[in-house]
Design a protein that fits this description.
The chain is an alpha/beta fold and 206 residues long. The chain has one domain: Rossmann fold, CATH 3.40.50. Helix content is 37%, strand content 24%. A hairpin with a 5-residue loop joins strand 1 and strand 2. It is globular, with a radius of gyration of 17 Å.
């Protein structure tokens, strides 16, 4: 996708001005047009799939990122003290939510969880502000398949002394992630089920 050089009008900046219902539909269109692909793919989980959701095409899109932040923020419990996710898929998501939280007058810091401990300096697994013991953190994820990535983030946060009770994802592929979180005692919610993206993909004639 290319971006125009002219300055967009106010009506073009839908991610900043649309109501949440319209915003969700616009974000669905972005996922269907930019991220969803059909073919033969191997996923991060090692599973083979006939489709792939290239989520970075949306999470790093200027309007996509803002839409994500605006849509996920209202889903956070009122006592949320931070949002966190496993690098690198969750990096733009937790950042977007944290930035939007400032404009909503409820600043929430973002934490990024490394897959391996940093090999120098503090040798930390978790990057970001140090929170009080027991702080309530919500884990954010891009696309959930088996659920293992977000669960690794949950485990790292709990090891650090934080409280994690919920995972929120952008897309649920419906391949066992929700069941895994339930078995771990975690509440799970996703903005979109994969069937919704696939249906919209076909409606748009891709």
């Amino acid at each position: 996708m290319t971006y125009p050089t002219e300055t967009p009008t106010q009506s073009d900046i839908w991610a900043a001005t649309a109501d949440l219902s319209t915003l969700r539909q616009k974000l669905l269109d972005l996922f269907s047009q930019l991220a969803y692909q059909e073919g033969d793919f191997v996923l991060a989980s090692g599973l083979r799939s006939s489709y792939y959701v290239n989520k970075m095409q949306v999470t790093l899109h200027p309007q996509g990122a803002l839409a994500i932040g605006r849509l996920l923020f209202p889903l956070l419990p009122v006592d949320t003290q931070a949002v966190a996710g496993l690098t690198m898929g969750a990096d733009p998501i937790v950042t977007a939510v944290s930035v939007v939280s400032v404009y909503e007058n409820r600043p929430i810091p973002a934490l990024i969880i490394r897959k391996e401990a940093k090999g120098y300096g503090t040798r930390a697994y978790i990057e970001g502000p140090i929170l009080p013991e027991g702080a309530k953190v919500v884990v954010l994820e891009d696309v959930v398949t088996t659920g293992q990535s977000a669960l690794k983030a949950v485990d790292r946060l709990k090891d650090a002394g934080y409280t994690v009770e919920q995972v929120i994802a952008l897309v649920d592929r419906k391949q066992g992630g929700a069941e895994l979180y339930q078995s771990a005692g975690l509440k799970f919610e996703a903005l979109f089920a994969i069937e919704e993206i696939q249906q919209r993909y076909r409606e748009l004639g891709n």
